[in-house]
Amino acid sequence: MTTTLTPSKLPAAGGPSLARRLLTTPTVGPLAALLLACVFFSFNSDQFLSGGNFSLIIQQVMVVGTLAIGQTLIILTAGIDLANGAIMAFGGILMAKLAAEGAVPPLVAIALGLLVCAAFGAVNGLLVTTIPLPPFIVTLGMLNVAFALTHIYSQDQTVVNLPAPLTALGETFAIGGTRVTYGSLLTILLFLLFAYLLGQTAWGRHVYALGNSPEVARLTGIRTARLTVGVYTVAGLVYGIAALLLVSRTGVGDPQAGQTDNLDSITAVVLGGTSLFGGRGLVLGTLVGALIVGVFRNGLQLMGVPSIYQTLITGVLVILAVTVDQLSRRRIR
């Protein structure tokens, strides 16, 4: 028995229109929220729309935003990383102390910091795939390991008098009448790079496939264990870049840094529309999510709202974002 498809039942050639795809992307909601927040704060503060203030917002979110890139990669595979802030802090202290004490040249210190952060990520990935252990447990344990190593290695001392290569990304250049840091530019370039890698390469498609269904991905020939280790390793390398951005922005190696940045990075990912269940989301959405947090904190501060209420509002936004994700998943099913 054969079935004949009538023209009305045939799938439309070319699939959904570009306009429809843009309107259904998970980034549309967060972007609309960001624009509405900007409109609201522009009416409540004369300083909000200034170029200097927007530059400040980007500087304030560049470290957490960069951490959130790595967090996005892991969440897309249906994992999570609670250790990224602690790994970043250890990488920053390692770079700063090696360079400040003259143990190695500054550029070598930076390279070692990046490699050590990547190694942390690789270990996380191996523990998740080979034993295997849940990502939550692995990264919770690694958070404590990295935190302890940071304080042991630094002896709880802030590292100062850093050489110029470690603070170069904190320097500024002019765009019109606004000063912008090189670190802010690097963060934006990283988002564009990973948007390309996830959206236009086989590696990116495999990451999404892994998050959607590890078993189906394995049956289609994807080496899921190797891919998972690779994702965690790349995420660790990104945490190392965040460490360099942190050191360049503050001008010191701070052993107390990054203690809540793991939660802030998850917040940025969730607000940006990436599903905590894996397989759905965009890294540019994470940029929007980080900017939402930065805009709200900056705008509320300009309005004179106490910081505790800023935290309260951020928490409400996260709950709303996860609720929307759950509802959309039910509708898809």
Ordered list of secondary-structure elements with their pairings:
Layout: H1 18-24, H2 28-44, H3 51-76, H4 84-100, H5 106-130, H6 135-154, H7 164-167, E1 172-175, E2 178-181, H8 182-200, H9 202-212, H10 214-219, H11 224-250, H12 261-271, H13 283-302, H14 307-332
Antiparallel strand pairs: 1-2
Helix pairs in contact: 2-13, 3-8, 3-11, 3-12, 3-13, 4-5, 4-6, 4-11, 5-6, 5-11, 8-9, 9-11, 12-13, 13-14
Key words describing this protein structure:
333 residues, single chain
Secondary-structure content class = mainly alpha
Q: If you average the pLDDT, what whole number results? A: 89
- Uncertain segments: 1-19
Cross-sheet strand order for the largest sheet: 1-2
Oligomerization status of the protein chains: single chain
Q: Helix coverage percent of residues?
A: over 70%
Total number of helices: 14
What is the strand content? under 5%
Number of β-strand runs: 2
Largest sheet: 2 strands, antiparallel
Q: What would you report as the Rg, rounded to the nearest angstrom?
A: 21 Å
What is the 3D form? globular
Distance between the termini: 30 Å
List the helices and strands in order. HHHHHHHEEHHHHHHH
